[in-house]
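Ops channel
N.P.: pipeline sanity check, posting one input/output pair.
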């Protein structure tokens, strides 16, 4: 057996075990929830039958409109690396990612497909991979800040130990993430560590991401633009969830969704099959502060259907349009 084959065997085994873990997490959580609510399922399906189509259609339109902000942000992120790309291209790769989020385990799968198509279109530009990671980090950090800020500007946490506890943990996570990203000494120290179970390529990716983030310090205008676009995109996704709740006549303060939606999106990276099971558990944990468990479960199932539905739309467009061409140019920002 060759050395190359020996190196690939552990990798393949890890992928198999990770995929198995995702299916176990998703279907064990979903099975537990459905078993626990087996007596209330007729009530849950009754709520789903009362959906108001107008609000659902509005949610779809707001979602795809909000995706424009994400496309503009990705274009700006890639531009920092001296690579020019059209908004139509970044919008399309996000549509492709939506589809593959439904067929690949966890939302990370869609991000990998997005990176692949951008890499292919840029004729092998390695910076595209780090740009996609940074784009994801922008979304993550901004989501954390929106969720944390909701406690100061919106009256949603009074008497709720769940929300207050979550805010404390989110604050700690945000500070930790900021330190890890922006502190050069810590990053250098982490990159010099030799951990047997941690692949060398992973440490190299950490260095690459840090170098990418460092470049943004020299482009404060683009940094501000990316933050503004992320906020705009997140507000649109918050409105989507509010509209879905309204379609089921569930009265929940819109301020709650400023706290909840970022957490919901963050939970999307947990080991699962496109968030199935994890999403429903998250809904039940938080929404029961404002509504009945049956309505919370109905909304979670509607949200899962919504994500599958928009993914199918992305898949249909992908089926007719196919991949993307090499329409990316190298430019200088100096």
């Amino acid at each position: 057996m060759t050395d190359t084959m020996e190196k690939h065997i552990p990798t393949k085994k890890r992928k198999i075990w990770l995929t198995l873990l995702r299916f176990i997490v998703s279907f064990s959580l979903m099975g537990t929830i459905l078993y626990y609510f087996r007596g209330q399922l007729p009530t849950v399906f009754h709520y789903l039958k009362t959906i108001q189509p107008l609000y659902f259609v509005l949610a779809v339109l707001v979602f795809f409109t909000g995706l424009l902000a994400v496309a503009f942000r990705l274009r700006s992120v890639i531009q920092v690396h001296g690579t020019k790309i059209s908004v139509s291209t970044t919008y399309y790769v996000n549509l492709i990612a939506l589809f593959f989020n439904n067929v690949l385990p966890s939302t990370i799968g869609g991000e990998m497909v997005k990176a692949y198509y951008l890499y292919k279109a840029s004729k092998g530009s390695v910076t595209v991979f780090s740009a996609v990671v940074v784009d994801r980090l922008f979304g993550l950090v901004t989501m954390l800040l929106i969720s944390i800020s909701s406690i100061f500007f919106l009256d949603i946490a009074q008497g709720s130990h769940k929300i207050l506890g979550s805010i404390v943990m989110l604050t700690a996570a945000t500070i930790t993430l900021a330190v890890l990203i922006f502190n050069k000494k810590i990053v250098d120290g982490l990159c010099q560590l030799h951990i047997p179970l941690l692949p060398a390529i992973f440490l190299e990716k950490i260095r690459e991401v840090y170098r990418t983030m460092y470049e943004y310090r020299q482009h404060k205008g683009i940094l501000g633009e990316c933050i503004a676009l992320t906020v705009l995109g997140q507000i649109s996704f918050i409105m989507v969830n509010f509209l879905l709740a309204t379609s089921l006549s569930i009265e929940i303060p819109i301020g709650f969704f400023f706290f909840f939606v970022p957490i919901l999106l963050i939970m999307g990276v947990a080991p699962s099959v496109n968030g199935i099971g994890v999403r429903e558990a998250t809904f039940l944990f938080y929404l029961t502060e404002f509504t009945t468990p049956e309505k919370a479960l109905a909304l979670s199932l509607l949200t899962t259907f919504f994500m599958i539905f928009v993914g199918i739309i992305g898949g249909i467009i992908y089926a007719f349009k196919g991949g993307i061409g090499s329409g990316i140019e190298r430019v200088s920002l100096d």
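N.P.: looks fine end to end. The longest strand covers residues 83-84.
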